Amino acid sequence: MPAEGPVPDALARKLKHGYYAAASYTDAQIGKVLDELDRLGLRKNTVIVLWGDHGWKLGEHGEWCKHSNVENDTNAPLLFSAPGMKAAGQSSKALVEFVDIYPTLAEVAGLPLPHHLEGTSFKPLLDDPKRPWKSAAFSQYPRGKKLMGYSMRTDRYRFTVWVDRQDHDKVEAVELYDHQTDPQENTNIAKEPANSELVNRLMAQWKQGWPSAKPAAAGRG
Questions:
Q1: Could you tell me the pTM of the whole model?
Q2: 137-213: which CATH topology?
Q3: For the purposes of burial, counting CB atoms within 10 Å of the CB of 160, is it exposed (0-12), middle (13-18) or buried (19 or more)?
């Protein structure tokens, strides 16, 4: 890989080829596992969860792999199958997070939930994928040794606040992307005067954190 500058076209093609090959191979192995569950008659009482460690960039934003707070890195696969779910085979646009997987598994299995959990069981979405859910999802990733980036994704916006790692009250920069008009997050609109009120509103929501983003039916934590 080049120490700096863009990845040459030939190498970019090779990297994409390898990535797609790995995804195809993994897909085939998952298919074998599911086929075996069917063969053994275990599908009717087996909960299946498939998720990715993180998203992945293949040249978007001039970068490769992960290591940032953009949508490419933080939007990851999550497939959930449980016996008796009413919305089997459907998808949902609801915002969920990896911390929600454990409480969902526990609830589906009829196990008690510890009170210290930060995640929210999304079991209700398995029956009604269109129901109102979390108002935001949160992630964080550093930039160098000085900055920590905290990102909040709503149904429309990605809002990232960069703070000093030694003094979290010191905001160094803000990013705002409107997925309605800029789904690839190419234009930071945080400094546009017309968006000052929006930035203030999102900043207030971001400061409230994950407890305030929980769905009403799940309580406010």
A1: 0.91
A2: Arylsulfatase, C-terminal domain (3.30.1120)
A3: buried
Which residues, other chains included, contact 101 with Cβ-Cβ below 8 Å and sequence gap of 6+?
49, 51, 78, 119
The residues, any chain, with a CB within 8 Å of residue 118's CB and separated by 6 or more, are 99, 210, 221
Is residue 140 within 8 Å of residue 164, measured between CB atoms? no
**DSSP letter (8 states) at residue 196:** H
Structure-token pair, residue 135: 């108002």
Q: What is the pLDDT of residues 52-82, one digit of tens each?
A: 888 899 999 989 998 899 999 999 999 999 9
* DSSP 3-state of 178: strand
Q: Outline which parts of the chain fall under CATH 3.30.1120.10.
A: 137-213
C-alpha dihedral sign at 131, 134, 23, 82: negative
**Is 130 in contact with 104 (CB distance < 8 Å)?**
no
Give the three-state DSSP class for 57.
strand
Q: What is the pLDDT of residues 125-147, one digit of tens each?
A: 999 999 999 999 999 999 999 99
The separation between CA 198 and the C-alpha centre of its own chain, rounded to angstroms, equals 22
* Residue of 136, 127, 134, 17 whose CA lies nearest to 83: 127
